[in-house]
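User: I'm preparing a small set of examples for a lab meeting where we compare how different chains pack in three dimensions. I only have the primary sequence for this one, and I'd like the structure in token form so I can line it up with the others. Please keep the answer compact; I'll paste it straight into my notes.
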Amino acid sequence: MKIEVTARRLTVDAKTKDTIAKRLEKLSKVLPREAEAKVVVRLEKRGVLVEVTITARQRTWAAEAVAADQLTAAQSALERVEAQAKKTKARVKDEKKHTTSGVRSPEAALPLEKAPAPREKAPRTESYEARRMFDEDALHAFDRSKREVLVYRDPSDEQLRVLYRRKDGAVVILTPR
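Assistant: Understood. Below is the structure token output for the 177-residue chain.
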């Protein structure tokens, strides 16, 4: 891994440089081979700011930390970058684990015996008296209620009608022949 350390308004300690180099070499096991690291250490009013940016292929990991001394700021920024890189590596590994291969095994080519269909739950039953109402009244009552189905009796011909809401949200009236 190529490492570039830049200092602004101060000089970087040898111990800080060694820590940065060791941590990034350790991190190179997780990162792609062609990864490049740029570390900027600069003095600011609030303390020492360390920015770590790692670029590889199509991904960039970046973190910054401020502390009273160089070593603490560098360690904090490197910990954040390590966490980002490990999370990315785990995500890529998980995605690869869940993809299926285009090649089928010989067992998959053989027809499988049909497994018994899972038992479905018995339909829910409710009983109530079908009230007499006109279509407009039934639609109005249906819109106000939380029910999925409304059964009513049309006063003009005394036939049962069923009003229900489809999955797409449309309301339908069923009338028997």
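A couple of notes for your slides: The chain has four helices and eight strands. Strands lie at 2-8, 36-44, 47-56, 59-67, 131-132, 149-153, 160-165, 171-174.

User: Perfect, thanks.
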